[in-house]
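Example with several molecule types.
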Amino acid sequence: MIEIEKAYEAKKYEDKIYEKWESSGAFKPKIDKKKKPFVISMPPPNATGVLHLGHAVMLALEDIMIRYNRMKGIPSLWIPGTDHASIATQNKVEQLLAQKKITKYDLGREEFLKEVDKFVKNSQSTIRNQIRKMGSSCDWTRERYTLDEGLTAAVQTVFVKMFKDDLIYRGSRIVNWCPRCESTLADDEVDYKESGEKLYWIKYGPFTVATTRPETKLGDTAVAVNPADKRYKKMIGQVFPIKSALGEYNIVVIGDKSVDMEFGSGAVKVTPAHSFADFEMAQRNKEVFKKVGIEPMKEVIDEKGRMKNNCGKYSGMTTKECRRALVEDLEKLGLIEKIEDYTHNLSICYRCGYTIEPLISKQWFINVDKPVIKDGAKKKSIKEKSIEVIKKGEIKIIPEKFNKTYFNWMTNLHDWCISRQIWFGHKIPVWYKMDENSKKEYEKNPEKSRHLLGDKEAICSIEKPDDKNHYVQDPDTLDTWFSSGLWTFSTLGWPNKTEDFEYFHPTSVLETGYDILFFWVARMIIMTEYTLGEVPFKTVYLHGLIRDKNGKKMSKSAGNGIDPLEMIAKYGTDPVRLSLVIGGTPGNDMCLFEEKIAGYRNFVNKIWNASRFALMNVSEEDLKKKFTAVMAKSTADKWILTELNALVKATNVDMEKYNFSEAGTRIYDFIWNNYCDWFLEMSKGEHKNPIVLLHVLKTALKLLHPFIPFVTEKLWELMGEKTMLIAEAWPLEDKNTVFKKEAKDLEEVKEMISKIRSLRSELKVEPAKKINAIIYAGKQVKLLEEKREIIERMARLENLQIEEKGKKIEGAKLITHGTMEIYLPLKDMIDMEKEAKRMKEEMIKKQNIITSIESKLSNKGFVKNAPKELIGKEKERLAKEKTELAKMAENMV
RNA sequence: GGGCGGUUAGCUCAGUUGGUAGAGCGUCUCGUUGACGUCGAGAAGGUCAGAGGUUCGAAUCCUCUACCGCCCACCA
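Resulting structure tokens for the full complex:
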């Protein structure tokens, strides 16, 4: 008899257990070249703040995978880390400084970066603690940071390699520009927001054009029409003077298929320097511009979103101010035909929400179409290769539906702009030669002297050029996704040929939310295939977003967010983990609400109490005994062991298929229904077998450990185990513990008890009231005699008479159960009339079932095509239903 | 505009080679039975969005429709 506390108190144990795991070295895999390792690179949380539910679900799922594989004896490595998240972090620090009325320019680059580092160190330690709170069994000795020394070396090495391969180039192109961040953004870093705008119809030489951005009129160099448009066809190639508030200017008419004849007037004003579509049109019509001597690129908006000094009286105005002023002036000139309300999608910065200003800028790009990766005799572009690895199945995405999304994105990928005008990040390893004067000028104000950074004598190298006095490093930093794209191998020590890298790469699974499939997953594939010529991981597991009870996105502003840490404090980590895993399927969003967590807290407590009961019924001696199949004594023992074995088998299949929700649900069900409600209840009588009681429970604890590591570990300890559960071997099938006949017999007994209980309840017999029963058991007399005590206790019977067969008992209620007849003499206790009616209804139901099975079995097609097993089952069932109905009919008379 | 999902019990969702519709929560009726009221026993509740097709048999496969959602593109 061992007694433990009445309820599980997570808070009391969790931190201590985590420390014990960590200090035992269990998180650190042993390199064993004979075994294939299991590796997950943890998606590094941004170094900006705190853990949210997205991280929590990520940590829960990855920990399940890692613990499961570790218990299977596979060297399992889970590398944690953080991402410097250049723009996000810089913005955050800028905001904090703004509260003190300080700008980054007040501090200067160096001082500002010191501030950022301070901030990052602080949030990193917060994040570390939170990852620990979730019970994540990651290897902290290998923790990395995208901006640490080693990773910086990896970033520089890859950049130089790409530069040498001519894959990276610097060029003036139209880019997404955030005037607030004063930086470029990649195409997929642009968000769209529906916004109510005006559509201005402007008289435009011989045309009328419609635009939402009249201020860009100052940068117009053409009007585009569809070459098939009869109205304008003849004008293509001609030059027209256009009246404006700043006097006249010339435009050329170009023909381009992308112009929609139906929209507006069918003629579009073209501002190549400030619109992606216009830029492309100008590219396609280069020759036309050349012929008439018009320079297509007329830049009128600067990096701060203000009108350039070539804009006369509008110079210095913001685009918004300019729009207002210009429209007013055009109205005075009678050039505005009409103004309509119009809704369209505004491009905004995904980090700060500010309106994007497309403009021409000199930036670094990665050419995604250049054939550069050797593949046999051919060379393939990084784009082609990245598509191929998914097509060939070298990388498997779960769920598969994302393959299509991935292909679509990858196919339409344009050259990737990788330079950012952000201070915080990896500096670009390119050096520009300058004479002394230029250098002085540049250093005085780098922001305004970018034009001095000439390409001609630029050097790309990690080291500063020898002649360092004449070189200035590129002031830009790299897109944060450039470094996170290298994450799976840079964290393993690459570019050094470390043992870790050789052994652990490629990694096994990349688990993350589907929302960063493009941002990160796709870029990892690109970068890794290019750099190493291998995949970064073999499986991509994508989880869904966590939403609130009404399916709404959780957000601070909506106030519907759930803080995982608060929930952990209230209910413990284990329930939070379960609530994030069970009920979720890969790639699908999942709702989370507090009641759900509370429900799993109940489950955790249930396991605790089942263990409490088991421990109360075993001796210290029992704890030391080792279970073997021969220790199974009773039918109940054999039944639960058979069920347990089926559970182990099914769980293994689910775990291998990444069906964690189903695996979790199944174990939950086993513990609660099979183990607690039946086996434990049965064990309260004569048939007690402490060894089986313990063995089944301990096996279930092992299966549950990846899901709810804390409570299972604690119970493991309480069961007298000296080694930790985290390092225990994963349960495997044991055919010696399968007892088909006994399992089936016990199911019969269970079913019988249920039927008696059900009838009692329907007839409103008080639960406490003991009643008599006579069972004609046929061949099952022996079984029922063995289980007599259990049946009596669980069905609340006073006097149980078991016979092989006998006569109908007048005035007693009959329950038919296959060939068995159970009579309950309840005459005095029930309303016989009502009961007769109920009985009739039941018989009709039975008759319907019989009819439906009969028609199925007389269907030639069914008999011919259905599997034999199924036909056998149906026949068996028909016989059973028929027997039962006959008995009922007999009893009615 | 292009693509992808979803629609199953009052609510949140499972349902993996097509073979008698499931869970949790909620509801109702009982219950102080040797662990657990963070509990137990029992019950009610579903023409699986709609229409057609394939099949002996469809929630499951195909086609169409409706509604909801997401992603990509971005038309001035």
